[in-house]
Amino acid sequence: MNNVIDITPENFQQVLQDSQTQVVMVEFWAEGYEPSQQLAPVLLNVAAKFAGNLIHARVDCQQQQEIAGQFGVQNLPTVILVKEGQPIDGFAGVQSEAEIIATFEKHLPKPEDALYEQAVELVSAGDYQQAYTLLKQAHDMNPERADIKLLLADCQVELGQIKQAKILLEAIGLVDQGALYKSIMGKIELAEQAADSPEIKALQKQMLQTPDDLEIKVKLAVQLHQANQIEDALELILSVLYKDLNFGDAKKLTLDMINALPDGDPLKSKFRRKVYGLLY
């Protein structure tokens, strides 16, 4: 439910005070006036979309003519954005929701900002899995932001999504290839070196020699998973289940690998579907 404030002389100063920390959308309207009634539900939707960052205040101009006069309102409906006690933008007349958002969004924090800030804190605490989930949402909201892409790629590397991280980094322009970019590239190089470990090479050689040996495939899948080659590990261990659904610990290991993936990771839903297709 939207928190709508009806402005009166008694709370007017408090609303101005609130505008020091949040943007206030002041709606000037009149009872029984068709354009006001037409715009009111649209403003409610806008306020709901920016909940937490926008205060929706209403001035009944028939009851509060003095307040309307202080804002210089001449036509109804009129909407004014107030920040730090001062009008910063607005419009008169009926507008669509898209037009209002286009006018106002430059003055308001974007939804992805909060997700990104939370993710930065989680990364600092070493919680890459939770950070990934938030950054994936932020990236879906704004796929062009380099800071979001970089931090998401960093989480992907930490979670073993090397291929996906490399794809994201390909879209980073030269101007954004700073310290974090170079750090991620270094992590990728180390991860790829780990994937070429003697243990992995030996198991790969054995698998070529005895391609029907399911035990070797399971061992190699585990090694690949430990080397953060998550997708390759899952593809390999799934190939074991296709041959023998009840082979050793293969089913449990597969589910453990999938469950370890963060929420929002496309690999999680992709391999869950494959496993459920086998089980059911």
Q: How many runs of DSSP E, i.e. beta strands?
A: 5
Largest sheet: 5 strands, mixed
CATH topology of the largest domain: Glutaredoxin
**Strands side by side in the biggest sheet:** 1-3-2-4-5
Number of domains: 3
SS strand fraction = 5-15%
- As a percent range, the share of helical residues equals 55-70%
Organism: Paraglaciecola psychrophila 170
GO molecular function, one term: protein-disulfide reductase activity
TPR repeats: 112-145
Pfam families: Thioredoxin, TPR_19, TPR_20
Textual characterization of the structure:
- This protein is an alpha/beta fold and 280 residues long.
- It folds into three domains: 4-107, Glutaredoxin (3-Layer(aba) Sandwich), CATH 3.40.30.10; 111-177, Serine Threonine Protein Phosphatase 5, Tetratricopeptide repeat; 198-279, Tetratricopeptide repeat domain (Serine Threonine Protein Phosphatase 5, Tetratricopeptide repeat, Alpha Horseshoe).
- It is built from 14 helices and five strands.
- The protein has a five-stranded mixed sheet with strand order 1-3-2-4-5, sandwiched between helices.
- Helix 12 (230-243) packs parallel to helix 14.
- It starts with a strand and ends with a helix.
Short structural description:
With 280 residues, the protein is of the alpha/beta class.
Question: Any descriptors?
Answer:
280 residues, alpha/beta, Glutaredoxin, Serine Threonine Protein Phosphatase 5, Tetratricopeptide repeat, 3 domains, five-stranded mixed sheet, elongated, Thioredoxin-like_sf
Write the layout of secondary structure elements.
Layout lengths: L3 E3 L5 H7 L4 E7 L4 H16 L4 E7 L4 H6 L7 E6 L2 E7 L4 H8 L6 H14 L3 H14 L4 H13 L3 H9 L8 H16 L3 H12 L4 H13 L3 H14 L6 H10 L6 H14 L1
Parallel strand pairs: 1-3, 2-3
Antiparallel strand pairs: 2-4, 4-5
